[in-house]
Write a structure and sequence with these properties.
With 519 residues, the chain is mainly alpha-helical. It has 22 helices and seven strands.
Length: 519
């Protein structure tokens, strides 16, 4: 047996275990054989996962001397991944301190079943029902494992559970109204049991012991464990402050150009309040225009938008919409075999917000990144995710496409784009402060309250913890992309070729992505 087949077997062993245990992550990748599960999160599950990881690590070590040159990078990727996972399970034991780890699994699992699948309605309903029935396993994991929590993560977890209580109640009732007589009893029972489990989780998390150490935040541990060795953060604080100051001036200038007689906050709010319910024809036309504007610099795409409307009537808005966007875009994963992007409207929304979502999560954003992965990357590497690049690509595409779309959508679109960029940078600044232990929970709330731009400050504060360091990762990724772009375009590479080569290596660590771009 040659080494390549041995490595493939070890790889298959690791990922089959991982995807079964963390089933919602499998769904995100576009692997749907576990869409009926939420995952394995009780004490015995984590103990057995640690044992499995040690066994895989041993196999990798014994095979190390046989690595062929063409497989060295693949070997290193898997070795680092196993080491990080072992550290997470055995040393950091985040499952004992972070309630958000559990609540986000339930939230993401249900939202993907409800809105992210291209499967027929009866399949999506069955997956949603199965995941409702699996909430008890997550509740059991919380009660067995959770010992304490940081105040910020506890608060965010409680808000997620309150959202889930509303979402399960309303969306289950919506599905009940569409179910045949045979399936109604199953839905009623699953709904009642799920709401009971959410109530138990709420009670348990509400009474958990508090720890005030910001160093225990989940995203802080992840960044230190997996990324800070590759990226220096020494100058990030000053850089973010300067960027925020410049953006604030741009926002105030643009808002005065739109309406000089009122504050920039009032102007932004007025624009965001201009909500409408789009038709499938309108959405298709918007997406076609985005593709036409981006095709010459990002490349051809087969992506299209699958339009869904979840409304009882045009005058009714679900209460759960307050916890998520009214326009839900679920990006496809690298293993999805379809080329459609599910877009679900649960209430009217603002045109500018819709356009930015279609760009960042559709084309040329995350769904297009997955499309290039399917075309260009090996099956092995497509399993890996580099969150620094992924989040950076999302903000990068909005920045590039803003310059091409503002001519059609005008000053109001550009102002909402600037506000979106400001929100991301401000979150990144606060996340960096938490990372470096410069602020605690009181300072966290004060710095947000004193800001002159952000509108819904309670929602903004909650989203910082719930997003698990997304904004800081996006700034790191954006800076990397911009730096590499400057280098290669100086060497006369075409912008479209740069983007395709960049996405062709997007699963790799940042230093290897740059090495893979050939001019």
């Amino acid at each position: 047996m040659n080494f390549n087949s041995t490595l493939d077997k070890t790889f298959e062993e690791y990922f089959e275990e991982f995807l079964y245990r963390f089933s919602v992550k499998a769904t995100r990748l576009g692997i749907h054989r576990y869409d009926y599960r939420l995952g394995s999160f009780d004490r015995a599950d984590f103990d057995s996962w640690a044992a499995a990881l040690k066994n895989i690590k041993k196999k990798l070590f014994l095979s190390k001397i046989k690595v062929k040159k063409g497989k060295r990078l693949d070997y290193l990727l898997l070795e680092k991944r196993v080491d990080n996972e072992l550290n997470w399970v055995v040393n950091e034991k985040e499952y004992t301190t972070n309630p958000l780890m559990y609540t986000s699994v339930v939230k993401d699992g249900l939202l993907y079943s409800a809105f992210g699948s291209h499967a027929p309605f009866n399949v999506r309903s069955k997956n949603f029902l199965d995941r409702l029935s699996a909430i008890g396993t997550i509740r059991k994991g919380i009660e067995e494992n959770l010992q304490c929590s940081n105040y910020l993560e506890k608060t965010a977890a409680l808000k997620e559970l309150q959202f889930l209580n509303t979402f399960i109640n309303e969306f289950s009732s919506y599905l009940l109204g569409k179910s045949d007589g045979e399936g109604k009893d199953d839905f009623k029972l699953a709904k009642a049991e799920a709401l009971d489990e959410i109530g138990k989780m709420l009670n348990f998390v509400d009474n958990i012991t508090l720890s005030q150490e910001n160093g225990g935040l989940s995203f802080v541990k992840e960044l230190r464990r997996e990324y800070l060795g590759d990226y220096p953060l020494k100058d990030v604080r000053v850089d973010l402050k300067n960027r925020l100051s410049a953006l604030r001036e741009l926002i105030e200038k643009k808002s005065r150009a739109i309406k000089i007689s009122q504050s920039c906050n009032a102007t932004i709010k007025d624009i965001l309040d201009k909500k409408e319910l789009f038709t499938i024809e309108q959405v298709a036309a918007i997406f076609d225009h985005i593709k036409s504007m981006g095709g010459n610099i990002f490349g051809h795409t087969d992506l299209s938008v699958e339009f869904k409307l979840i409304l009882q009537n045009e005058n009714r808005e679900f209460d759960f919409v307050k916890g998520i966007s009214p326009g839900i875009v679920i990006p496809s994963g690298p293993f999805d075999t379809h080329t459609v992007i599910p877009l679900t409207f649960t209430s009217p929304m603002t045109l500018s917000t819709l356009v930015l979502k279609l760009v960042s999560l559709g084309y040329p954003g995350k769904s297009y990144e997955s499309e290039i992965k399917r075309r260009k990357e090996s099956r092995f590497r497509a399993f890996f995710v580099n969150p620094l690049f992924d989040e950076g690509w999302e903000i990068y595409t909005k920045r590039v496409m803003n310059n091409r779309l503002k001519g059609k959508y005008g000053d109001e679109f550009e102002l909402i784009f600037l506000y979106d960029q400001y929100s991301i940078l401000f979150k990144a600044f606060i996340e960096n402060e938490l990372l470096n232990k410069r602020i605690g929970s009181e300072e966290f709330e004060k710095i947000i309250e004193e800001d002159s731009i952000i509108l819904d400050k309670d929602e903004f504060a909650n989203s910082i913890i719930a997003e698990n360091g997304k904004s800081l990762k996006s700034v790191i990724g954006l800076d990397f992309i911009m730096a590499v772009k400057e280098k290669v375009l100086r060497r006369k590479m075409e912008e479209k070729e740069f983007h395709i080569q960049l996405l062709s290596h997007s699963s790799l660590p940042l230093k290897f992505i740059e090495q893979g771009i050939r001019t």
